[in-house]
Amino acid sequence: MLFAPTVKEELSFGPKNLGFDPDTIDQNVQWAIKTVHLEEELLTPPLALSFGQQKRVSIAAVLSMRSRILMMDEPTAGQDYWNYQAFMDSILQMPGFDSIIFITHDLDLALIYANRIIVLYDGEIVADGKPLDVLQDRQKINQWRLVATSLLELNFQIYPKTGKFLRAEALAQFID
C-alpha cells in the first residue's frame, strides 16, 4: 500500500484525489500524523520505517481523508503496548466517524475496545453481540479456536464489581 517518496506525500495522496483544497489537505495530514505519533517522520520515505511505523502510516493515510467509516484490519499489529493503547484510545475518541470497524485476532483488543463483536468461524457468523454476551461461554470460545486470555478471565471474575471490561492496569485496583 505504501508507495509515495515521503510520509507527507503518502498522507496527502487520498485527500488530493478526493479534491480537497491545499489548506484542508495540510490540516488533515497534520492531524493524522499526530494521531499516530509520527510527526517527526513526515519527510521520511515510508518504506524506510519499521513495520509498526509503516502500519501507523497506512492508518494515517486513511485518517487524512476524514472518512465517515473507518475499517481497520489488525490495527495494532506490530505496535508496542504504549502505541497500541494510545492509538486505539485516540481512534475511538475521534469525532466524525459513523462507525469504526476493526478486524482482529487479538481477543484482548476486542474485549476492551469493542461494543459489538462478530465472530466468524469456518466462513460463518457464529456469534454477534456485546462482548459480555459473546465471550462468556468458554466452551464456544474453545470451539471457535479463540484463546481465552488471562485478561478475559480476570475481567469476568471482577465484572460484578466493575460492570465493564477493563484493561490490565485498571483491573489492578480490584485484585485482593
Label the structural class. Answer: mainly alpha
> In angstroms, what is the radius of gyration?
18 Å
The proportion of residues forming helix, as a percent range, comes to: 40-55%
Strand percentage lies at: 5-15%
Q: Using DSSP, what is the number of strands?
A: 4
Describe the protein.
The protein is mainly α. It has helices at residues 7-17, 22-35, 51-63, 81-93, 107-113, 131-135, 138-143, 150-162, 168-171, and strands at residues 69-73, 99-103, 117-121, 124-129. The chain is elongated. The chain starts with 6 loop residues before the first helix and ends in a 5-residue tail after the last helix.
A few lines on this structure:
By secondary structure, this protein is mainly α. It has helices spanning 7-17, 22-35, 51-63, 81-93, 107-113, 131-135, 138-143, 150-162, 168-171, and strands at 69-73, 99-103, 117-121, 124-129.
Task: Describe the secondary-structure layout.
Blueprint: H1 7-17, H2 22-35, H3 51-63, E1 69-73, H4 81-93, E2 99-103, H5 107-113, E3 117-121, E4 124-129, H6 131-135, H7 138-143, H8 150-162, H9 168-171
Parallel strand pairs: 1-2
Antiparallel strand pairs: 3-4
